[in-house]
Amino acid sequence: EIIGGQEARPHSHPYMAFLQIQTPIGVSHCGGFLVREDFVLTAAHCLGSSTVVILGAHDVQRRESTQQHIPVLRAIPHPQYNPQTYINDIMLLQLGNRTRSNQVIRPVAIPQTWAWLKPGTLCTVAGWGRISLTRGTSVLQDVQLTVQRNQECKSRYFSYNSLKQICVGNPREKKTVFKGDSGGPLVCNNVAHGIASYVNKRASPPAVFTRISSYLFWIKTTMRRFTQ
Questions:
Q1: Does the active-site annotation cover 132?
Q2: CATH number of the structural domain 2-9+109-213
Q3: Is 197 annotated as catalytic?
Q4: Lower Cβ count inside 10 Å, N or C end of the chain?
């Protein structure tokens, strides 16, 4: 999912989740991130008929002893998600059982109130997506990306909405998220502020991320409603 990044230090992003998603045409993959022992946050366009979440992974093609494989009990995409415009591209996954938090598996904080990230803010994104237009990887990659002025995305993407989305990645650098990185978190100062949503087909930044702080009420009420 990451272009222009590098292999992550193993388990330096203990909130990262790898999603194996069953769809009508086969298995697809997304990223996601643990926000509570029993909930993973990801993108609504990562919805499938069934999903398994892998936590504690570095290389997802190996059965590492640190990994926990947990089936998703309930996938809850945002009720107003629009697949044409990718507005409200956010989904909660309730896990079939609670994770055991340890050194390699730990939730990440999300904003407590509505947050506006200043352009120039440096954030980190991680994922198992493509590392070039054609090459994939099974090892977690990460990259540092800067928040851009909303104008950079408004001029490129007709449906961009600055209240619900964040514009990320310097257009002059070849660093961005790509296929397979969807659903992964934009982490700034140890807080997850965004969810990887989309970038253009040439993988040239900026990319669009869902703004988590616009959905705090929905996230909190949904997690409360489905807590076992």
A1: no
A2: 2.40.10.10
A3: no
A4: C
